[in-house]
């Protein structure tokens, strides 16, 4: 890790530790608070079980290998699923996320000690001289306003070395993922290690393109009920390309996600200026 970065500094306001759900409309604030799904300790403990096998991450490992990246920033690392895989392979990896509860889950994973963890947001990233930055799990869609998205890209740009790459995915609006989400109305249950049985109930989807908001209610064995509401922004390829150009990147490739053909853009962009 570069010498100017202390391990896991707290870059964000203390208020971020309080889970809040975003509203359905685009907030005015540059930075939104992380969703309860990531910031609530009970839900963060369930995240990896809810997500199941992470076949989606294989593609990122392959791309990073292709790029020859040795130092990598995992932006919006959440519970650190990719960061620990990279650390295990000997890459120098920094995971950054504003959701403290998710970072706590990451800290407990094997190989977590081989990575660096930053509690903060992408727009606060310092100059790290990294070879690459990744945003997996559609992190790019949590930035609802143009301002928040460009501040994120500027932060990533600052953190990369000249010629470094950002690699991320974003759902293709044309695939209309929200229609499938709206059709999923049945209860689902999981047994989460260390937590017990959790029952999830979808509470509805609201489509106000380019924003889509969905809510869920989770009931824990203890009887505790935790609700979450998330809003995502869907951007088309032209919008992604022009925002990258404005932030000082050139698009090197737009690929498909092999595990979700036709549904995602996987963008590889190079820092040019
Ligand atoms: C869908 S999760 C993906 C987590 C992880 N990348 C994965 O693949 O499992 C989205 C993540 O983005 C994080 N996030 C939200 N706002 C952010 C910001 N301004 N900067 C960095 N990460 C942010 C959330 O806290 C959450 O952990």
TrEMBL record:
<keyword id="KW-0949">S-adenosyl-L-methionine</keyword>
<keyword id="KW-0489">Methyltransferase</keyword>
<dbReference type="InterPro" id="IPR041698">
    <property type="entry name" value="Methyltransf_25"/>
</dbReference>
<feature type="region of interest" description="Disordered">
    <location>
        <begin position="1"/>
        <end position="32"/>
    </location>
</feature>
<feature type="domain" description="Methyltransferase">
    <location>
        <begin position="72"/>
        <end position="164"/>
    </location>
</feature>
<dbReference type="GO" id="GO:0008168">
    <property type="term" value="F:methyltransferase activity"/>
</dbReference>
<protein>
    <submittedName>
        <fullName>Class I SAM-dependent methyltransferase</fullName>
    </submittedName>
</protein>
<dbReference type="Pfam" id="PF13649">
    <property type="entry name" value="Methyltransf_25"/>
</dbReference>
<dbReference type="InterPro" id="IPR029063">
    <property type="entry name" value="SAM-dependent_MTases_sf"/>
</dbReference>
<dbReference type="GO" id="GO:0032259">
    <property type="term" value="P:methylation"/>
</dbReference>
<feature type="compositionally biased region" description="Low complexity">
    <location>
        <begin position="13"/>
        <end position="32"/>
    </location>
</feature>
<keyword id="KW-0808">Transferase</keyword>
């Amino acid at each position: 890790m570069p010498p100017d970065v202390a391990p896991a500094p707290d870059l964000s306001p203390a208020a971020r530790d309080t889970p809040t759900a975003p509203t359905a409309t685009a907030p005015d604030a540059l930075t939104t608070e992380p969703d309860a799904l990531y910031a609530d300790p009970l839900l963060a403990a369930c995240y990896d079980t809810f997500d199941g096998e992470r076949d989606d991450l294989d593609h990122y490992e392959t791309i990073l290998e292709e790029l020859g990246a040795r130092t990598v920033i995992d932006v919006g690392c959440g519970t650190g699923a990719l960061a620990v895989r990279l650390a295990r392979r000997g890459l120098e990896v920094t995971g950054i996320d504003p959701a403290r509860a998710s970072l706590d889950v990451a800290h407990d994973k094997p190989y977590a000690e081989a990575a660096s963890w930053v509690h903060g947001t992408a727009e606060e990233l310092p100059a790290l001289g990294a070879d690459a930055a990744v945003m997996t799990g559609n992190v790019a869609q949590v930035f609802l306003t143009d301002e928040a998205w460009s501040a994120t890209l500027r932060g990533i740009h600052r953190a990369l070395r000249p010629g470094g790459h950002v690699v991320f995915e974003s759902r293709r609006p044309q695939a209309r993922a929200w229609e499938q989400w709206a059709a999923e109305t049945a209860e689902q249950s999981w047994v989460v290690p260390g937590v017990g049985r959790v029952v999830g109930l979808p509470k509805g989807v609201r489509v106000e393109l380019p924003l889509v908001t969905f809510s869920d209610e989770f009931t824990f064995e203890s009887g505790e009920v935790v609700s979450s509401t998330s809003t995502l922004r869907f951007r088309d390829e032209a919008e992604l390309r022009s925002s990258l150009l404005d932030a000082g990147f050139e698009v090197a490739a737009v690929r498909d996600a092999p595990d979700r053909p036709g549904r995602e853009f996987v963008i590889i962009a190079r820092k040019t200026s």
